[in-house]
């Protein structure tokens, strides 16, 4: 296995910049996922590693070698795509061994590798099946085995689970994690699905608009997002956001005020607009908030719609007296709405007046212009101590 290094990769198609100056390193044996909305440049970035796309600028290294201009077959990479395209007239054994036979390995070596790969993806006993006799998940495993037999330095996987149904996708996630562990493989994985990225990867690289936003372990992206984009993209349902004005001793949003001594935040002055972010699980009914070390002052609200999910209930809160929930408005970004998640045993119903508090230790503040994180957690910022400054994006 080998490490992969991208150095200032830019890819332009005419006027459009698909990938904008991306530099990152994937360690030997690491599972890194490129995640971001459709069109953000994930596949193009990965294709520069595979050799399927030539970067306009920048260099690609695999191990210690500069492979920027090498043909895909000379890079020691194996790819698994969304559409695995098995040969329909060949059985599983022939499909897995096809690339090896082209390379003229002797029969015994081919058989040894195919059996080992089939064992890893749990297809033993199915080697004489035809693709038409297999489920989508089994076919996808044949595609992965076909990559394994080549013994690559790096696995590149582009949305390999996208065509599978939801249940199988979740199952295959655990299989890929096991595969990663067993092979000690370097894996670069592309997905638009933040849950897939969160659950499988050592680190996730969040992309937007061709630019790398943050590369960090999943929980760091979740708890210390480097900017508002990452904060909103990672986590489902999304973080709530509300713009507010910094006043003397507080942050005033259109519906509530949070105690804040902004003189303790270097980048913030009275009169500035900053964006407050809070995740649904960090909004609490005041009557259940005894255990919070640092709650905000209670905020008046009315419950609008309740969504029972089984293990939790999403409660849409309306903050202003005279507003109705609107289907057009995204509750995450509407200043008059707040999404709260509560446990299923919580006594609450639609149309009820309630008051809620925010957990100060979980409040994020972002620069309203640039979106950059200013602080994660404002515990102590109303008093003598200071909060934690955001960590630098790696
Ligand atoms: P993602 O994988 O994140 O969905 P892509 O890397 O496929 O995004 O694409 C990034 C951007 O580059 C998109 O705007 C896409 O339209 C553009 N793009 C990708 N490939 C080509 C191409 N061959 N020619 C022109 N534009 C392209």
Automatic annotation (TrEMBL):
<keyword id="KW-1278">Translocase</keyword>
<comment type="function">
    <text>Part of the ABC transporter complex XacGHIJK involved in the uptake of xylose and arabinose. Responsible for energy coupling to the transport system.</text>
</comment>
<dbReference type="InterPro" id="IPR012340">
    <property type="entry name" value="NA-bd_OB-fold"/>
</dbReference>
<dbReference type="GO" id="GO:0008643">
    <property type="term" value="P:carbohydrate transport"/>
</dbReference>
<dbReference type="GO" id="GO:0005524">
    <property type="term" value="F:ATP binding"/>
</dbReference>
<protein>
    <recommendedName>
        <fullName>ABC-type D-xylose/L-arabinose transporter</fullName>
        <ecNumber>7.5.2.13</ecNumber>
    </recommendedName>
</protein>
<keyword id="KW-0472">Membrane</keyword>
<dbReference type="Pfam" id="PF00005">
    <property type="entry name" value="ABC_tran"/>
</dbReference>
<comment type="similarity">
    <text>Belongs to the ABC transporter superfamily. Carbohydrate uptake transporter-1 (CUT1) (TC 3.A.1.1) family.</text>
</comment>
<keyword id="KW-1003">Cell membrane</keyword>
<dbReference type="InterPro" id="IPR027417">
    <property type="entry name" value="P-loop_NTPase"/>
</dbReference>
<dbReference type="InterPro" id="IPR047641">
    <property type="entry name" value="ABC_transpr_MalK/UgpC-like"/>
</dbReference>
<dbReference type="GO" id="GO:0140359">
    <property type="term" value="F:ABC-type transporter activity"/>
</dbReference>
<comment type="subunit">
    <text>The complex is composed of two ATP-binding proteins (XacJ and XacK), two transmembrane proteins (XacH and XacI) and a solute-binding protein (XacG).</text>
</comment>
<dbReference type="GO" id="GO:0016887">
    <property type="term" value="F:ATP hydrolysis activity"/>
</dbReference>
<dbReference type="InterPro" id="IPR015855">
    <property type="entry name" value="ABC_transpr_MalK-like"/>
</dbReference>
<keyword id="KW-0067">ATP-binding</keyword>
<dbReference type="InterPro" id="IPR003439">
    <property type="entry name" value="ABC_transporter-like_ATP-bd"/>
</dbReference>
<dbReference type="GO" id="GO:0055052">
    <property type="term" value="C:ATP-binding cassette (ABC) transporter complex, substrate-binding subunit-containing"/>
</dbReference>
<dbReference type="Pfam" id="PF17912">
    <property type="entry name" value="OB_MalK"/>
</dbReference>
<dbReference type="InterPro" id="IPR017871">
    <property type="entry name" value="ABC_transporter-like_CS"/>
</dbReference>
<feature type="domain" description="ABC transporter">
    <location>
        <begin position="4"/>
        <end position="234"/>
    </location>
</feature>
<keyword id="KW-0547">Nucleotide-binding</keyword>
<dbReference type="InterPro" id="IPR040582">
    <property type="entry name" value="OB_MalK-like"/>
</dbReference>
<dbReference type="InterPro" id="IPR008995">
    <property type="entry name" value="Mo/tungstate-bd_C_term_dom"/>
</dbReference>
<dbReference type="InterPro" id="IPR003593">
    <property type="entry name" value="AAA+_ATPase"/>
</dbReference>
<keyword id="KW-0813">Transport</keyword>
